[in-house]
User: What shape does this take?
Amino acid sequence: MQAYTQKIREAARRLLSEKKVDVVIGFRKGTIPFMNEPFLARNAEQAAQLYWDGNCGINLANYVTKRTDRVAVVAKGCDTRNLVTHILENQIPRENLYILGVPCKGMLDKRRIAAELNGREANDVEESDGKVLVKGRGVELTLDRGEYLQDNCSICIHRNPVLYDELVGELVEEQTNVDRYADVRRVEAMDPGERWQYFEDLISTCVRCYACRNACPACYCPTCFVDESRPQWVGKTIDPTDTRTFHFLRAYHLAGRCTDCGSCERACPMGIKVRQFTKKLEKDVKELFGYEAGLSLDQRPALDAFQPDDPQAFIK
Amino acid sequence: MSEIYIAREKLPGIVEQWMGRYRLFGPVFQGQYHEFEQVKQPGAVDLDFVNTKLSPKGLFHPQAEKMFEFTLDKQNPEAGILKEIPRDYSERVILGIRPCDARAFVLDDVNFNTNDIKDPWWVRRRECSTLVGLACNDPCSTCFCTSVGGGPFDTAGLDVLLVDVGDGFVAQAVTPKGEDLLAGIQGDPMPGEAPQKIEDLKKAAEASLGKAFQVESFTQKNMLDLFSDPLWEEVQFSCINCGTCTFVCPTCWCFDIQDEVSEDKGARMRLWDACMFPLFTYHGSGHNPRGQKLQRVRQRFMHKLKYYPDKYGNGVACVGCGRCVKACPVNIDIRQVARLMSDGCVCPA
Ligand code: SF4
Ligand code: SF4
Ligand code: SF4
Ligand code: SF4
Assistant: This one.
């Protein structure tokens, strides 16, 4: 991780001082454990604040949307897939982007680590050699890093950047032995009543802050349907009808676009597993159209181009 | 004011006794975190908690509250007349509230309960509630109550303060209401070392908190200078305008009022709203005076740390609970913002 940080700083300094880009978007070290802050470096001096470790789970593609300057962005595998999606969806031209690709080893799941701490507080976290060392008041824990990754990271098969101008480290080995859809199949196997209940329970604590939506690079509509007031499509209450409407529509708007980066889930203050909605759609799009979002600039997204061999069984 | 001692094993009995007499609310573990809720089983109250994810403001100012009902049925002589929804104002005890959160209600009172304007629901809910606080022996690293005028043993807003002294709790009445509550329960003999223990715990807790920043160093600055400082450019970059910070905050009181109508029945709702949302300031004309993210981010922090103290002379509108620090998905830390407001925009190395 230290090595990545050094490489990121060096590259940023060079790009900024040679005026190859106007700004560099990366992370700086957070003020509390398990958190880093998305950061905009405007000059070579500020590049020294850039930082990288296993707490960079927020997707930085979210910060380049509609920018008109020349931007370098530090991007792990999933972030680069969202950058590809952004380019395909005309959110930023490729020539304005300089991608500092980060071969990713997975991001830490702060909630699961917190659960291990049993209410005690972490003051300091160090990562090294596949281990996470957590220190706090009256507690010192050494955890196997691989066991404490975000859910999406533990099943990720695109850890390496799919598009980049420069890498900040050696490419990593991709995971091959993962079952990406075990949880989706579990839900599919439920009868409709059970399934309904499963999703009702899932979102029962939602406070409708919309952090999940706002943390998502693919949610960039100038006015989101939940913010429309003339007419108003969704009520602002926490009545299950309103909450459901939000979640269903959010998920459908991401069909064939979600890269399973997990930014939404990481951002949710209530710890709601919102990827349970988008993953089903991801699986469907893959099965029906053989499409995985954001892997290539040469392939139009499944839902924005008609192909003669698209499945049409739903037309009755 | 009286003071009684409650042996640890006696507490559940007292909770049960209160449940028989009052509606009892307290911190209940929800699987991932604690929240305040009405307690149905005495064992559900868990005083071994750090603090709740959401603040207890929802007990006085619910996230979504039906205020009135009405009918639009033209045949009905009462068509279009707003009818207040009855609320339960029977006496209730809120147990285990932290000193910062109790103090937040005092800060919020300036909005809901003034000489000229009284929000009837807020006022009556405040009146029917007895707040039994729990002193923080072991504040967490995101707490900064002592930097904003509070403290881990502060009694502002509380009726009773409980201090966990190890084998039991010392309950100190703070107000006549608290006095009445304590009069109704049977205490145990106070251990001789308890007063000293409380002093020591209090000192240790305060010492562990330190000072995150000096309030005067920004409250005394010129408002327009702060408003136009380049620091907001820096602060706003990472913000995703989600509103999480405002939802978890005990002193964010803003709301929207909307009518929900289905066929000819309607309800007028009061709903939490937030300055972080673009819709909050969106005018009917289509103009939005805070159309930019920077303007919204600045509003939240300026309201808490500058406009409020200027307007009410009551200190800043942040009690240092640290909820927003923990919950912000992108690590915007109000302590850091306060330091930037003190020093101007010097980026930390
Ligand atoms: S929905 Fe969630 S996982 Fe999918 S792209 Fe958006 S933030 Fe990433
Ligand atoms: S971030 Fe979580 S609480 Fe907020 S709207 Fe999304 S699911 Fe609901
Ligand atoms: S929680 Fe953080 S990202 Fe969300 S609105 Fe507040 S400051 Fe911005
Ligand atoms: S601004 Fe943050 S720290 Fe201050 S009272 Fe609100 S939630 Fe707590």
User: Anything to note?
Assistant: The longest strand of chain A covers residues 23-29. The pocket of iron/sulfur cluster (ligand 1) is lined by residues A 59, 215-216, 218, 254, 258-264, 275, 278 (CB under 6 Å).
